[in-house]
């Protein structure tokens, strides 16, 4: 991958069990970074707005039933479709020159243009906060008993986060929080397995935050954790690779 010495946006991922507080903390983090003047977007996976996302949503709400591997690959595809999008070459006025030296645009022989959506955002200086990412994919599917290496394989080549913030909550405490919403997976026994599968992926690069603290304390710790990562981000964007 071509490296650029210009500063770029940061890729920040929030992970954790269901009801660990990721979604409200992601919004708070967004406001904080915007307040500091950083261009920031909040994304979430699954992104239920796409057609793949709608299949996932139907599965989660028990309206459809899919094989474990099939749904695993759909979750992954839902990330890939935000990593790379393919457009008719409608970008007639698109400033190709601007992207000349980078590799986020690929012209294809079929007259379509392939755009590395995520990469383009980052290179345009936009910081992305992502509510769930590959680690959810691997944790929830391997908790069902699928081989963890098999689960990781389709994630290889997605963009690697600059920081993973893990909101750590005992499954029992999460279950007490206003109950689960009734979607698939929202059961204590299963969440215990998911917690173990998160632990299996957690390494020293993750920032683990105690999600049982008061909301404001968690918010502050997340702010401190990201601050170093959002200013003058110059390291090249990496792909998730085989570990
Ligand atoms: N989930 C989420 C997966 O099983 N695999 C994935 O790759 C992702 C991103 O979807 N219980 C599960 C975790 C959640 C559920 O997520 C829906 P949310 O954040 O409640 O919309």
UniProtKB/TrEMBL annotation:
The yes or no answer to whether the keyword Magnesium is present is no
Give the EC number(s) under which this enzyme is classified.
2.7.4.9
For the keyword ATP-binding, the answer is yes
Q: What domain of life does the native source organism fall in?
A: Eukaryota
Pathway involvement of the protein, from the record? Pyrimidine metabolism; dTTP biosynthesis
Q: Which GO terms describe its molecular function?
A: ATP binding; dTMP kinase activity; nucleoside diphosphate kinase activity
Could you list this entry's UniProt keywords, alphabetically sorted: ATP-binding, Kinase, Nucleotide biosynthesis, Nucleotide-binding, Transferase
Q: Name one GO biological process term.
A: dTTP biosynthetic process
Q: What class of enzyme is it?
A: transferase
Report one GO cellular component. Answer: nucleus
Q: What residue stretches are annotated with the Thymidylate kinase-like domain?
A: 14-90, 113-221
- Homology family: Belongs to the thymidylate kinase family.
User: What name does UniProt use for this protein?
Assistant: dTMP kinase
Protein species of origin? Salix dunnii
Portion of the full sequence shown = 48 to 290 of 323
């Amino acid at each position: 991958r071509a490296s650029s010495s210009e500063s770029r946006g940061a890729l920040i991922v929030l992970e954790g069990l269901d009801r660990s507080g990721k979604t409200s903390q992601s919004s708070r983090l967004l406001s904080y970074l915007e307040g500091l003047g950083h261009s920031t977007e909040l994304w979430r996976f699954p992104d239920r707005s796409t057609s793949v996302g709608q299949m996932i949503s139907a599965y989660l709400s028990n309206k459809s039933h899919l094989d474990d591997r099939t749904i695993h690959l759909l979750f992954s595809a839902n990330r890939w479709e935000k990593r790379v999008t393919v457009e008719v070459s409608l970008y007639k006025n698109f400033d190709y020159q601007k992207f000349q030296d980078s590799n986020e645009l690929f012209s294809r022989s079929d007259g379509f243009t392939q755009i590395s959506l995520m990469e383009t955002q980052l290179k345009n200086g936009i910081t992305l906060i992502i509510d769930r990412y590959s680690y959810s994919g691997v944790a929830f599917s391997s908790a069902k008993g699928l081989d963890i290496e098999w689960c990781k394989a389709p994630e290889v080549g997605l963009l690697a986060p600059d920081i993973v913030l893990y909101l750590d909550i005992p499954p029992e405490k999460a279950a007490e929080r206003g109950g689960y919403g009734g979607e698939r997976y929202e059961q204590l026994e299963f969440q215990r397995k998911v917690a173990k599968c998160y632990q299996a992926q957690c390494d020293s690069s993750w920032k683990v935050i105690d999600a049982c603290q008061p909301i404001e304390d968690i918010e502050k710790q997340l702010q401190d954790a990201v601050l170093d990562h959002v200013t003058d981000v110059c390291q090249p964007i990496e792909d998730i690779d085989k570990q």
